[in-house]
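The freezer alarm interrupted the setup, so I double-checked each line after restarting. Inputs confirmed:
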Amino acid sequence: MTKLWGGRFTESASAQAEAFGASITFDQKLASVDLKGSLAHAQMLFEQGILAQDEWTQIEQGLKQLETTLADHSYTLADEDIHMNLERLLTEQIGPVAGKLHTARSRNDQVATDLHLWMEQHVEALTTALRELQSVITEQAEQHIETVMPGYTHLQRAQPISLAHHLLAYFWMFERDVERLTDNQKRIRKSPLGAGALAGTTFPIDRFRSAELLGFESVYPNSLDAVSDRDFVIEYLGIASTVMMHLSRFCEEIIIWASQEFGFIELSDAFSTGSSMMPQKKNPDFAELIRGKTGRVYGNLMGFLTTMKALPLAYNKDMQEDKEGVFDTADTVLQSVQIFTGMIESATFKTEALKKATMQDFSNATELADYLVTKGIPFREAHEIVGKAVLYCVQNGCFLKDLNLETYQTFHPDITEDVYPLLDPVQAVARRTSYGGTGFAAVSEQLELAKQHLAN
Ligand code: ARG
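Predicted 3D structure, all chains:
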């Protein structure tokens, strides 16, 4: 088969090298956006008088025909990539006039355009999926404003909190991810089309028109930058890594909470698996798998950053390495968010176990210290006194609420009967009314704010 670029060659390609250089096995994902880009380019060429009416009509019909038969095409390695495969198919369909489509265009600006268009669609889909996850989080939070649970630092019981507060912490992480994706779209919706191979073109093209036809918001002002910029990809891979990092943290907590030792959550059967040997097992496989897949998403970011390192201007074949990592990341992160959403939506929180946990620990120690402060004792001193009381309890196998007044007064004479209600974990949560705190009223306000963000 002769190459579309075969004019200056006398020998045919090495079969192994040809297969090594080809990207068609993976860049066929770009077929639909490639046709879209070609259509806009051809229309602009026609409007600028570069293509004649009948040429434009034939090319337009041919491209539209290829779009409707997209699933049936068979591509060849010999045609290297999706751009040349589609050009050959167009030629088979409409004859030599197809060759005019590539006027004032190079595969360098073509592939960059395709990637911008593909990423735009994906980032939109990922944003929608994250919004759905956030909405499920708010629904679960709504049910659990008054569910108290232990709050942790260093994975040690710290202070009791509202479960809704814990869940909403993740809402805000995903909110920042959505903000980052929205900002990423500004760089994605920028047109490289018409930059040519690197230097622009002698034809009287209108880059703003083709950008407008494709729904881009702006046009790269420098043709060298247009064809060699992959910042928008790296930025996306970084955001996707952050989304996975957030998911992996939530997954880790779910895995711990689903253990028998914690018993804070029951995952639905639909999002759990059994063991082939141990009949009693119900494993949080999907949370583990999402946690695990975070690794490959980070790998794609590091891999492609390294590919781009020290590349001279403008296009270099190295840049063909952008696609597999991006496609893999896109699939992984979108599926992870969707699976995770189903898992959270169908999970049951064990409210009694959560509450019981707060009764059997020292997470009310801060309440006792704060109580002493209200009696005029400096906080440092109060901290020391409570520390001694906790040690006494540890040595005597009880909790702070179990100490009688007589014992309390050996720690400090100002401790009176009014201390006991404050040691109740529900009170400890309710009283944290500061903005952004875990108090029930503060959490209700926070939930309202979260819903407002979702509505926008
Ligand atoms: N398949 C190539 C890529 O993905 C398309 C651009 C090739 N341009 C070139 N001059 N070899 O990057």
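Quick read of the result. Residues 23, 27, 81, 107-108, 111, 315, 317, 319-320 surround arginine (CB under 6 Å).
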